[in-house]
Amino acid sequence: MSKQKIILFVDDDASFLELIGELMQQASAGGWQVIMADNPAKALASLKEFNFDMIVVDERMPIMSGLQFVRLARGRFPHVPIVVLTGYAEERTRDQLIREGIEVLLEKPTSSEGFHTLFLTLHQLLELERQQGFRGVMHDVELQDILQIECLRRNSSVLEVFSKSEVGEIFIRTGAIVHAAVGILSGEPAFHHLVNLKDGEFRLKPYQEPPAQTISLKWETLLMEAAQLRDEVAGSSTAASIEEPTLAASADAAFPPVELTEEERAAALTPRNFVAVSIEGRILAGSTHDAQNVPAQLAALLRDAEWFKTAAGLGALELFEASTPAREAVMHFQPESVFFVTQSRRNAA
Amino acid sequence: MSELINRWFGRAGRLPGVVAYGLRYPDATVFSNTWEARLSQTVLNELWSRLAPMAGVAAPGETHEMLRWTFNGGVVIGTARTDGPAFFVLASKKVDELDMTGVQRLLSEFRALRG
Q1: Nearest residue on chain A to B53, judged by CA atoms?
Q2: Could you tell me if A243 and A226 lie in one domain?
Q3: Do B106 and A112 count as a contact with CB atoms less than 8 A apart?
Q4: Fewer Cβ atoms within 10 Å of its own Cβ: the N or the C terminal residue of chain A?
Q5: Residue ranges of domains in chain B, CATH in brackets
Q6: Which domain covers residue A241, as residue numbers?
Q7: Quick one: pLDDT band at residue A133, thresholds 50, 70, 90?
Q8: Do both A247 and A273 map to the same domain?
Q9: Is the pLDDT of residue B30 over 90?
Q10: What is the ipTM for the molecules in this complex?
Q11: Does residue A285 have a pLDDT over 80?
């Protein structure tokens, strides 16, 4: 897991700030800490308090313009990327901003789609910054060598390993390999999978505490096992064509398919509750817990359904599906009857 | 009512295949947003008000994460928050016309907004 990024948004429109802060935090799934300042004074105070990864500032602000703020911020924090949001910057202002060394001049979003595009752009910029760190390609440097060096030096770091389709992490704490994770694998299976990837890249990142300690073997033993596994695969592939070890194969080994008994299979397929009700509220088939008078409610819905066709012009209501954390429910509407089935999530799975 | 939710609703941009958006609070306050001249605000407001109670019959007292009404001439996709407000998307029934990824994103945003 990478550390939380701290982003400063500066805009005199407080309602815009509140919305952008909410949506950016949401889109980053907690990966960003968004600090908001609705005037330059607050923004400058925040600059003293936080170590920002990026500053996003509105170009049009009263008292101090975006350009003036950029000058101040750039002077004090020359390495922090600055993005300026603008709806209608004049050519002259654009040139000035670019001369001040801002990273990007972006259109200020006005729609949900625009907010999403802005997030993706900012995220991409932050990724570019992050990639300044040490990185290597597995063709050029052996991943095992890096692990050995880190462990021998009793370093603490996180080795991020990524191929075309997978990203994994190996956590090293004061020279001991304590955790590895890739996809749904963790611990030793994840470690062996990562160190035996044939093509990919890796990046050494500052140490962060892993979510759990899943590896307790000594690093020497782990690397020896990894080498043996690699030799076995290489030997097999020269003797006969062998499939590359894949994440799916490793996952299959870690999570063998669950065998259901006939009874369990039947229970999983049987709806918990169903009822068919006529437009008059008469039960045509099935049964229901009548505490809430479900047949009468269904009949009322069926009668109301005519409105969708006539007044709303949507045509006949055919199906209604509802999903809650606990259950799934379906109503199938016919002209004179409605069929309602509900089943718990456990059975629906 | 939540000012933040209202602001978010007001800024929800048009997605391919989408005809209208609806917002309904537990106190029955409704808002509609459409780009189709043929659809009146009154009819849309009535539409959301008639759809919402169905969820209560299907799974009373629960949080309806995903709701879908299929009509002969269109589809309504919706979701409700744990604190009550519900968001609806009236869309074309043709799968290739509808930006379902965009709709899913809007539903997720709506559920996650602070109340």
Answers
A1: A301
A2: yes
A3: yes
A4: C
A5: 3-112 (3.30.450.30)
A6: 135-252
A7: very low
A8: no
A9: yes
A10: 0.95
A11: no
